[in-house]
Amino acid sequence: MRTTILITSPDQWTAPGLELFEFSPIFLGGPEWLTKPVLIALLSSVIVIAVCWAAYAKPKIVPRGWQSVGEYAYTFVRDQIARPSLGKDADRWMGLLLTIFLTVLVWNLMGVVPFIQFPVAAHIDFPLALALSVYGIKLHLGVKHHGVRGYIRGIVHLPGLPGWAFALYAPIILAEVFITSLFTHVIRLFANMFAGHLLVAFFSYVGFWFLFEQLTPLGAGVGVIGVVVTIALTAFEMFIQFLQAFLFAMLAAMFIASGLHGSH
Predict the structure, then answer these.
(1) Which regions form coiled coils (predicted)?
(2) Statement: residue 23 has pLDDT above 70
(3) DSSP string covering 17-28, please?
(4) What is the pLDDT of residues 169-203, one digit of tens each?
(5) What residue spans define the domains of the chain?
(6) Distance in angstroms (rounded) separating the CA atoms of residues 74 and 91
(7) Is 192 left (phi over 0), alpha (psi -120 to 50) or beta?
(8) Which residues contact 155 (CB under 8 A, 6 or more apart)?
(9) DSSP H helices in 4-65
């Protein structure tokens, strides 16, 4: 495992920084893209596929074990994410939305798994790729069902709006649909995972430094505080990891609905 904490001298404490998110290739002389986050993302995909296979491959009338977990996840995504945005079209998109939710959730939870301890979504390339996929589906559905002109007209249409107000409103809403929505979809997930990982690393290193590296009577108290805050932050971070998976999937459902219905 690569070292991510930089120490300028044996007696000087240095806070962890952006080096936490910089990774060299796994193998010396190997491809630049084959880094730790890529391996974690591949492992996450294997986990999601394995869980879904165990839950849905051979369903029983009375669910048990992984099938119970799978049905709970399916019901949650259907009732809390798909149906509020997609209505009667929810069932058609459940495969995609369930996959998005589970994938982002496992990505995020990797940040608290021992010896892995890196949330994939804290590397912006991964949420960007997923958000771009949803963005492409939204545009495809909008043009397919409404045509280019009809799709744009449905986005900017607001009955009773005066001409001068429409001239201000139209560029803003078009920018929101075609630019800002993609940006917020990516940044909401990335920023939360990035900041959470940095905070947990900071306080865990405080505890490690003052309790093990430079143990002193005064510093021991600071180290204990670091450990306690790390535990509390880790628990809170797990809640945020679930919440961000939910929000990412919910936004995906909303964007898909906007393409289907031709509205913003």
Answers:
(1) none
(2) yes
(3) -GGGG----SST
(4) 888 989 988 999 999 999 999 999 999 999 999 99
(5) 27-261
(6) 11
(7) alpha
(8) 173, 174, 177, 262, 263, 264
(9) 36-56
Contact between residue 246 and residue 101 where contact means Cβ atoms under 8 Å apart = yes
Task: Specify whether the CB–CB gap between 138 and 258 falls below 8 A.
Answer: yes
Residue-wise pLDDT tens digits, 35-79? 999 999 999 999 999 999 999 988 888 888 889 999 999 999 999
The Cα–Cα gap between 151 and 142 comes to 6
Tokens of 180: 């800002």
Contact 253, 81 (CB under 8 A): yes
**Cβ neighbours of 49 (radius 10 Å):** 13
Q: Greater confidence, 241 or 263?
A: 241
Contact yes or no for 237/167 (Cβ under 8 A): no
Task: Please name the residue that has the structure tokens 């143990």.
Answer: 215
